[in-house]
């Protein structure tokens, strides 16, 4: 199993993601691969969009697995918002 992320267009914030699953089903080998383009949204950009929208209140960044509040965002975070 592998995951790869490559920058496709820095200015447009586009990247190419590839996910490959190598499966062994009782001796029968199978590989499943998915490739797709995605847009990177930086934490500061996201927080700015939320602040400019009066319908939501930004409550903070939270850790992916433990759901612990973070002082600064990093990779694989949750952003918690509340509807006003």
Characterization of this structure:
With 84 residues, the chain is mainly beta. The protein has 1 helix and 6 strands, in the order βββαβββ. The chain has one helix spanning 43-52, and strands at residues 2-9, 14-25, 28-39, 56-62, 69-70, 78-83. A 3-stranded antiparallel beta sheet has the order 1-2-3, with no helix packed on it. A 3-stranded antiparallel beta sheet has the order 5-4-6, with helices on one face. A hairpin with a 4-residue loop joins strand 1 (2-9) and strand 2. The chain is elongated.
Q: What labels describe this entry?
A:
three-stranded antiparallel beta sheet, 84 residues, 1 helix, elongated, mainly beta
Per-chain topology:
Layout: E1 2-9, E2 14-25, E3 28-39, H1 43-52, E4 56-62, E5 69-70, E6 78-83
Antiparallel strand pairs: 1-2, 2-3, 4-5, 4-6
The count of strands amounts to 6
- Compute the number of helices: 1
Look at the structure and give the mean pLDDT. Answer: 89
| Structural Rg | 18 Å
Which geometry do the CA atoms define? Answer: elongated
In short:
This protein has one helix spanning 43-52; strands spanning 2-9, 14-25, 28-39, 56-62, 69-70, 78-83.
């Amino acid at each position: 199993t592998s995951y790869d992320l490559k920058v496709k267009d820095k200015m447009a914030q586009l990247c190419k993601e590839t996910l490959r699953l190598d499966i062994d089903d009782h001796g029968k080998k199978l590989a499943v691969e998915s490739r797709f383009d995605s847009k990177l949204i930086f934490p500061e950009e996201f927080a700015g969009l939320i602040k400019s929208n009066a319908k939501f209140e930004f409550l903070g960044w939270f850790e992916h697995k433990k759901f612990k509040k973070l002082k600064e965002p990093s990779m694989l975070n949750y952003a918690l918002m509340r509807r006003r």
